[in-house]
Automatic annotation (TrEMBL):
UniProt entry tagged with the keyword GTP-binding: no
Cross-referenced Pfam families: HTH_1
Family as reported in the entry's similarity comment: Belongs to the LysR transcriptional regulatory family.
Protein name, entry field: DNA-binding transcriptional regulator, LysR family
An MF annotation (GO) of this entry: transcription cis-regulatory region binding
Domain annotation HTH lysR-type: ranges: 1-59
Protein origin, superkingdom: Bacteria
Keywords recorded for this protein, A-Z: DNA-binding, Transcription, Transcription regulation
Length: 292
């Protein structure tokens, strides 16, 4: 027996003074209200209403039970309200600074359609992992090797001038190959992680570039500013290049990509973010979705 539902019918009929009116208050059909009250009477072993009159008049037993039924109904309503607030409690998610405000707004809007209410914390790769560890956020999009990622973001090189070739080869940046000052490749903080940075350094050495020709910038803004107005190159995604108004090309001879997965203090939060928001996060990151 649904004790709460039966008590709601009992209280509603009492307050309305009739079975028809009480059913309307409880937003249930009148026969359902009658069946619920009859079930409650059988459960309690006594009549709650005197059915010899046209109005729903309480029996002495019904009057004695009414306060308890009212308390149960109020508690049930309070619990439902608390549950709704709990579902709407923001899930703080640490995200890369590579996502634009528009990207994050679209991700948040999509999350709301599946009853996930996000609150973002923008941070670098190392900080995102630490924020999860210290429980300052409930979940984070953490940097992982691309082969291990749920999301992968192909990286290339972007420049202010339109490249002549469809692929940028690092060998073309060697001293003597290009006129003027040596061109540099700028690595932004989001890519200052071993699975990206070390591959870039190995490719630099294999191409015969000087160590100073690949430099890690302190911020994305600094990295982009170093490219604008110069012949230098920015390691970035195609989406970032479009946002910055730069021409993007893949790097020849080496696969460079970011990888992302979800980390969270509670396993349930991983599932709440990773599964229903997989495609939305891919769009936010400018990512390919790895195959299952």
């Amino acid at each position: 027996m649904d004790l709460v539902g039966c008590c709601k019918a009992f209280v509603s009929v009492t307050e309305a003074g009739s079975f028809t009116g009480g059913a309307a208050v409880a937003q249930i059909p009148q026969p359902v209200a009658s069946r619920r009250i009859a079930a409650l009477e059988r459960h309690l072993g006594e009549r709650l209403f005197d059915r010899s009159t046209r109005r729903a008049r309480l029996t002495p037993f019904g009057r004695d039970l009414l306060p308890s039924a009212q308390r149960l109904v109020r508690l049930a309503e309070a619990m439902e309200s608390d549950a709704q607030r709990a579902r709407r409690r923001p899930l703080r998610l640490a995200v890369p600074d590579t996502s634009t405000t528009r990207d994050l707004a679209e991700l948040e809007a999509q999350a709301r359609t599946v009853e996930v209410f996000l609150e973002f914390r923008v941070a670098g790769p190392a900080e995102r992992a630490e924020l999860v560890r210290t429980q300052e956020v409930r979940a984070a999009l953490v940097a992982v090797p691309p082969e291990d990622g749920v999301w992968t973001v192909p990286l290339g090189l972007a420049s202010e001038a339109e490249p002549e070739e469809a692929v940028v080869h690092l060998e073309t940046l060697r001293a003597g190959r290009s006129p003027g000052a040596r061109r540099r490749v700028w690595v932004q903080p989001e890519d200052d992680v071993p699975h990206v940075r070390d591959r870039v350094f190995r490719a630099r050495d294999a191409a015969g570039l000087l160590p100073a020709q690949v430099e890690v910038a302190g911020t994305l803004t600094t990295a982009a500013a170093s490219v604008i107005g110069s012949a230098d190159l920015l390691l970035c995604s195609a989406d970032q290049a479009r946002e910055l108004g730069l021409a993007w090309r893949p790097v020849g001879g080496v696969r460079l990509a970011r990888g992302y997965d979800v980390a969270a203090g509670l396993g349930d939060d991983v599932g709440r973010v990773r599964t229903p928001l997989r495609a939305a996060i891919a769009r936010c990151l400018g990512a390919d979705v790895a195959a299952d």
